[in-house]
Amino acid sequence: MEALPQTLLFGILRSGLYALTALGLAISLGVIGIVNFAHGEFVMLGAYLGFWLYLTLSGPLGLGPEVSPLVLAVGIPLSALVLFIVGRGVFRFTLRPLLARPELDQMLLTFGMAILIQNSVVIALSPQALDANLGWRFELIEMPGGVVSVTYARVAAFVLSMALVAGTYLLLARTRIGKQMRAVAQNRLGAMVVGIHVDRVYEVAFGLSLALAAGAGVMLIFSTQVSPFIGLATILKAFSIVVLAGLGNLFGVVWASLLLGVAEQVISQYVPNGAALRDGLFFLIIFVVLLVRPGGLGRSR
Amino acid sequence: MALLEAEGLVRRFRGLAAVDGLSFTVEEGKTLAVIGPNGAGKTTAFNLISGLLAPNAGRVAFRGSDVTRKRAHDRCRMGLGRTFQVVQPFAELDVVGNVMVGALFGGGAKSVDAARREALRLCELVGLGAKAAWPVGGLTVPDRKRLELARALATRPAVLMLDEVMEGLTPVEEREAVALLHRIRAEGVTLLLIEHVMSTVRDLSDRVIVMDYGKKIAEGTYAEISRDPKVIAAYLGSEEPMRGAVPPSDPPA
Amino acid sequence: MRRALAGWAAFLVVAALVPLAIGGDRYLMLLANVMLMFMALALSWDVVARTGQLSLAHGAFFGLGAYTVALGHRYAALHPLLGLLLAAVVGTAVAAGLGVVTLRLRGIYFAIATLAFAEVLRTVAFQLPDITGGPVGISMPPLFDGDRLLSYYVAGAIFVVALALSLGVRYTRAHYAVTAVRTNETVAAAMGVPVVRTKVLTFAASALVATLAGAFYMPFITHTDPQDAFEVSRSVAALVFPIFGGIYTTIGPVIGTIVLRSFEEYLRVTPPWKEGYQVVYGAVIVLAVLFMPRGLLGLTQRVRAWRS
User: Model pTM?
Assistant: First the structure.
């Protein structure tokens, strides 16, 4: 049972990145109503961007592995900005014309984009996982009492993710564009009636969702191995969180992430053959929630 | 014989009651019209009765049996047919194909060929005989309404719910539509209509109920309700004239 | 309809004679076998698409079929042809279960659930080495001792099943049901179409065929592992072939398979595509959805219309 605090802490820390990734997905799903199957690939792109930044800063600029915090400080805003712009462009030229068409077409498009992006990276770079000798990944923080041990990287990822999530919530709650996004998410027709320029809101929302994905991606290189193929696992976790919180329930994403993050760790630690079941956990969640409460476990409608 | 009964139907959307305790009956062979200002909850009521929406409270009975739990497609098969206010044909099927959907599933046709024969017959009945093989994209507004009617008729309804079938029609087309509805009635179909065009209501209906804010505020013959001060107030209050309202002392056209 | 049936009968005759043209070339016979298998898979995916649903699990049912046959052989000494039957039952049952839960809801939930389902199967096969052999995979002796001509006709039989499904959904009342459901579920229900039942039955029938294709694959290829059996690329293939050739038709998936799968053989061995050849499929999907929604067949229709 000594492992319990460690397990819980791990779960909580991991949930930070999950929440960030899932929030991005929840925004495109809730505001625009499209399933972006390529969301995980944009996380992957963010990770590759972050890694490139790390190599650039530590290598040619001779700053060495200590540059990791700088990578986060610069990489997150940089990749977020890049993907925000890319996202708006992608939306305008591919998704917007499809909004009037059946859902099948929209889903096919994002799925095709996912395959396209994933394999482009395989061809342009390599199918091998990134050889990230990111020393900072493994540096442990000195914890009093020795009950738990944790790396700087995990703590930083959690703190930064939650900061970004909180920032996004503030944006949604307080800014004009945020309120417009929530209005459109609640009632598109009503939003149009009161004069909200829905197309523009969609564009911003999509850009925002990709920006969040990119930010999450940059932090990912400090927690796991990154390859062109991480998109699928990423998006499945994000989907199960979004389904658990309930479609359109943007504010419920955090606690759903916490729940899943902790559950994931607890299961792999304490249940026999837990590692195998852990991945199945996400599908099980999706399946059970859809069976019992398709609206998600959030507030009842 | 009460063919269709609605009892205490309630349906809320995010706290607001679109339908708030609605009760009425449809007698076999007696046309019932539902009128009321926009937003009164008429289409929601139709959706509750046809099974496309589940009520928060209340029940629906058809031919004496409780259908509140039954799915829309089951109710259709039992004989509850409807048209939609915004006509929505199946774009990838041609005219006769659209009607065949109704014939095959709601109407229980024994084979695709039998369904096609019935569909062609109904196309003739509504006046689309010449256009049976047309793609639906080429149809005019009145033709689309004809298609909507034919498709609903193909489901062999005992009660046919018509949602604002006169909307968008010129006065000439309106008269044709009313004549068509008379013919449909003659085939033994009981009509339940939502309508804004009062001349139609006056000409076709045996009884009228008036809805406002999800509730039934009046019930009676056209003559009775058009004199009812509550009804007049509801319409006046909504800034919406009772379109084509005629004084009840006019002889029927 | 009779014309279509005659056309397909002719196609089957030609297909039956293909081995004669190939002679003894083992590589070409391998291609021919695999081609039939993929045509069946593509046809099965298209049928589900006709109800307006996006299945990302057809590759998973394929893998499920493969593993069912392999496990049936390992634990019950089941002959591969019997394994085919077992796989068909398993695939249909699983699909029906999955469908009943998810097809009551919006299409996006079904699509997500199929994606998750595929990943779960792969993980289960990976993480239970005592049962499935884990990452190392599982083997079984070759079908008909490696006689690729005999296996070709087994693949052909599965293709015929797929063809029957595709044509059946087109030329019976099912055509009206699926088209109505795909266009507008609400109105379809109001016209008496049992929407959920239509979607579930279609999905189950489609999964049956996809599972059969995988069940054929296993003894044909003699060895598989979770990575191979459940690779996403097969789900991609299942959908890109029909989309490219012409969705909602029977000819479309067949043509799309022949063209793209042949092209794939070239890509797989040619740098720089080699491992990333799927990028072509991604591009095809994106471009087809945006510019060519009815695939090659749609293009020829448009050209014909424009000419007349």
Answer: 0.92
